[in-house]
Amino acid sequence: MIDYQSLRFDYKRHADQDAAAPARHPVVIVGAGPVGLTLAIDLALRQVPVVLLDNDNTLSSGSRAICFAKRTLEVFDRLGCGDRMVDKGVSWNVGKVFFHDEQVYRFDLLPEPGHERPAFINLQQYYVEGYLVERAAALPLVDLRWNNKVTGIEQSDDGAVLTVETPEGSYRLQADYVAACDGSRSSTRQMLGLEAKGRVFRDRFLIADITMDADLPTERRFWFDPSFHPGQSVLLHKQADGMWRVDFQLGWDADPVEERKPENITPRVRALLDSIGFEGVQFRIGWASVYTFACQRMERFRHGRVLFAGDSAHGVSPFGARGANSGVQDADNLAWKLAAVVQGNAPDALLDSYASEREYAADENIRNSTRATDFITPKSEVSRLFRDAVLELTKRHAFARTLVNSGRLSVPSVLRDSPLNTPDADAFTGAMVPGAAAADAPVVHADGSTGWLLRECHVAQFTALIFGQGEAAERSLAALRASDRPLHVVRMDDGARGSEFAAQRYDARPGTVYLLRPDQHVCARWRAPSAAQVRNAVDRALGKH
Ligand SMILES: O=C(O)CCc1cccc(O)c1
User: Fold this and answer.
1) Could you read off the pLDDT of 185-231 as tens digits, one per residue?
2) Domains of the chain with bracketed CATH
3) Does the beta carbon of 407 sit less than 6 angstroms from any atom of ligand 1?
4) Which residues, other chains included, contact 35 with Cβ-Cβ below 8 Å and sequence gap of 6+?
5) Does ligand 1 lie within 6 Å of residue 321's CB atom?
6) What atom of ligand 1 comes closest to residue 222's alpha carbon?
7) Where is the FAD-binding domain (predicted)?
8) Ligand 1 centroid vs 115 CA: distance in angstroms?
């Protein structure tokens, strides 16, 4: 078994370091974390060569982001590495909320059948990064350079020049576009004199990974004010390899250095385990950290030829697992747009929609994260009284459950107001509005074979889903063909067992067509499209209108 935590990657001298003039590349990505790696793989699969620079030669130190959401797994599936993540991770849908020591609420994030992926998996970040690195290594168009630290950036109208420091000295590189995926302390952001602004929360949390031989169902457990950690909150998650993540709220006055010491972590963990029935169970403390956080973002995610993605662009609290997941969705949004622009299939202005769509998503994540944090860590006596009253009521009254907020867990933003959407001209019901990430569903083919809707969406192209058979579906198919736009067509045959999920989720009738962007967001839909409507919708989604 590979120990991903102790892996060291070789620095290799590159021919660019000996070039007389700085070599020029279409895209240079700064930072080989989950976001930079996702973006690099996605671009390479779209036939765009990428240089990916990382300032060290290791994967994530510590388990860090552990909760990877359904949408993130669907992105990883599209990139060809979702199965490994899901096979190694622990899947979960259910969360339990406790007030004092009593369960007051249980929720199921994916109560309906007919989805390939669970609501979440928990997997240590070093595995996620390791699997992405291995996937990238299989793609000749990804040029991953370890121990290549960007120390300077100069922008011009048509690109940027980066200064890169290596163990053998520094060299310069030119890029048509730079993606800054270099984390919350982004040096790219600092070098450009930019900042992220927002609210810093005055509280401290201890995260400790413990390994123990004990089992509980794989569920998220959250305690408000439990007897084993009075006055504070606690969150427990199971990870791979018999590891568990515990988050203890400590309060602002806690001493971060003291709290990280094993002799101070042990009694906290012991009290938790004793309270959940694991009195005799031995445990080992692994990675531990004391953190504070801020909900903040850069005002704009695009600065000329530099695009910011992930934690460099925005930050949230861990509650809701919206950090890494929204970063992967940034990459998902950016990759196809960058590919379309550098390949000459879309104007540069398409990249403005990356910024506006993901700034919108960041606001939604920050809003959710801020509300959850305010509920979890009330900052006044009145807020605490309100919070405790809600939790008390929740035991008996369903209405109060909607007010409980232990973190609203990550779901993709619906990009409802995106300029890339074609507004509906026909009546539809349901959630698959233009801007929504396409819902998965079983697919039943005419020959009886089965698959999953999102797996059928081709990585490189716009996809058209056509529902049903018969004349209406044939007319829609003819319109798609006559549109003269490269479309990957997926036939959603109705009538077969299992096909009802898709028909219902997409409010489909025979002939209904959904147009999906390459990142699987719906951008248009019709009951019976014309070729011109399809053509216009594709062009609009490419930023040509
Ligand atoms: O369950 C949640 O709301 C998030 C769990 C989580 C994710 C990342 C770090 C961390 O300490 C907790």
Assistant:
1) 999 999 999 999 999 999 999 999 999 988 889 999 999 999 999 99
2) 4-90+120-197+296-368 (3.50.50.60), 442-541 (3.40.30.120)
3) yes
4) 181, 309, 310, 311, 324, 327, 328, 330, 331
5) yes
6) 1
7) 26-368
8) 23
